[in-house]
Design goal:
It contains 14 helices and 20 strands. The protein is of the alpha/beta class and about 425 residues long. A seven-stranded parallel sheet has the order 3-4-2-5-6-1-7, sandwiched between helices. A seven-stranded parallel sheet has the order 10-11-9-12-13-8-14, with helices on both faces. Strands 16-17-15-20 form a four-stranded antiparallel sheet, sandwiched between helices. The longest helix has 13 residues.
Length: about 425
């Protein structure tokens, strides 16, 4: 297992495991069911995937490990980490909003590892689209979030469909969560790496709005923050849409992310936020945990969450990996503050004169070729340097998906590149390039 791990880490460009991942690996050897508690962004996915890979058997047909996660994006993220490990084992990802027939066809040649949302996996089990008899490990990733989203019935159905003796792993970024009886855990061992007295450099400030809907205060705050990356949290999809429309009207560059969007739109919004084509992402609590969104400078609570755990997870999106960050609470003058939020938070005064933040440094181009077309990042880098005549500092982050890719280029170059590259080819394949709106 050790030599295999070293090989995998080398492929992933990781020098060594962190303390939590080493502890998890050691506890895995004890054969107990495990509860892994660790903050978002600490590497839980790699922690549970490494031992799973070590026990996969190339001579065993069918699904050997099943991983449930509460959101499509998190499921796809887990799949991406597994693929980056460079094993020879097949992996599939199933989730709502994805064509059921395509997933059924993919499952006919069963993957060794199956990842998905509880509802979709339960549906495949009901339809007998894959065999559960060889499953050795079940991971319930961010299990408390899945319960919070109402997946208890589906999770229970999945657990009951599995063979007796399946090893179970539960993960969460929150401690003190009640574990439901249907999990039927065996000699549970808790691995807790949630800091008791956090030394994270998170600063908390509040902004007092003079208007009930707080839109003007949010606009002023965003102008005050300038080009810093910020997540704006709301409780409802409608609020996300309304705020985005208002900011668009004020010439503020932003994007939205919530459960009502099509999967492709959600994926594109995250990609553009990660690569710097947007500095502001307005979202529901769907983006509060599990997702890989690094380098967020500010979290803005436009609407306050109802429970402390949600507040903690929202704030956990910033001040990560020893970086500093700020959590802003926007309050109407008479707004009641939940008891889990201190009244002693410093008031952030905003300048009356507002200056619209500059447009982000990057813009994103859509390329209609991806992994399934045998196109990778190296191919795209070469293409844009050679055919597009880009300089090193004019090409940003590249995301390659199954059937498409997204390429960040220096703002202002997009239209020129689209025209210049219209008749070019990548690996002898005709390529279509357009702005990623």
């Amino acid at each position: 297992m050790q030599s295999k791990n070293v090989s995998i880490l080398k492929k992933m460009g990781i020098q060594e495991l962190n303390e939590m991942q080493i502890s998890y690996s050691n506890h895995w050897k004890e054969k107990n069911d495990l509860l892994l508690l660790s903050p978002t962004g600490s590497g839980k996915t790699l922690a549970f995937l490494l031992p799973i890979v070590s026990q996969l058997n190339s001579n065993t047909k069918g699904v050997q490990a099943l991983i449930l996660s509460p959101a499509r994006e998190l499921s796809l993220q887990i799949e991406s980490v597994f693929k980056s490990m460079g094993t020879a084992y097949k992996v599939n990802c199933c989730y709502g909003g994805h064509a059921m027939q395509i997933e059924k066809n993919n499952l006919q040649e069963s993957p060794a590892v199956l990842i998905g949302t509880p509802g979709r996996i339960a549906d495949h089990i009901r339809r007998n689209n894959f065999d559960c008899k060889n499953i050795k490990t079940l991971v319930l990733d961010e299990f408390d979030k899945a319960l919070e989203l109402g997946f208890q019935t589906e999770m229970k159905a999945v657990v009951e469909a599995l063979p007796i003796g399946v090893r179970k792993v539960l993960t969460s970024a929150t401690q003190g969560i009640s574990i439901p009886e249907f999990t039927n855990l065996n000699h549970l061992k808790e691995i807790n790496f949630i800091p008791q007295n956090s030394t994270i450099a998170l600063y908390q400030k509040k902004v007092i709005a003079t208007e009930k809907d707080k839109l003007s205060a949010l606009f002023q705050l965003i102008c005050f923050l300038g080009d810093q990356s910020s997540l704006v949290f709301c409780n409802h999809r409608e609020a996300v849409e309304r705020i985005a429309d208002h900011l668009y009207d004020q010439d503020i560059s932003c994007d939205i992310f919530h459960g009502g969007l099509e999967q492709a739109d959600r994926e594109r919004a995250l990609i553009k936020f990660r690569n710097g084509s947007h500095q502001i992402l307005i979202t529901t609590d769907l983006a509060s945990r599990g997702l890989d969104i690094p380098d967020i400078k500010n979290v803005i609570h436009y609407q306050l969450p109802r429970v402390k755990e949600a507040f903690v997870h929202r704030n956990g999106r910033t001040a990560r990996m020893k970086a500093e960050g700020t959590s802003f609470i926007i309050l109407a003058e008479e707004e009641k503050v939940p008891e889990f939020i201190s009244n002693e938070i410093e008031v952030q005064k905003l300048p009356i004169e507002t200056i619209i933040p500059p447009l982000p440094k990057w813009e994103t181009l859509y390329v209609d070729l991806g992994k399934k077309d045998k196109v990778n990042k190296v191919d795209l880098v070469g293409f844009f340097f050679k055919m597009g005549k880009l300089k090193k500092d004019e090409l940003g982050k590249i995301d390659v998906l199954d059937h498409s890719s997204y390429v960040a280029v220096k703002r202002g170059l997009g239209k020129k590149l689209i025209g210049k590259l219209r008749s070019e080819r990548i690996k002898k394949k005709a390529v279509r390039i357009m702005q990623a709106y």
